[in-house]
Amino acid sequence: MTMLYGFYVLIWPALTLGVLALICRAVLRDWRAARKEQRELV
Length: 42
Prior knowledge:
Layout: H1 2-36
């Protein structure tokens, strides 16, 4: 049971990092597209 709790606690930072990486990648892609089109990001 301790291994299960340990896995449960340790998986959340990994999931959070994955979501953060996904968001950063999307923002960078949008920023590059805006810069290419010579417009503001917001």
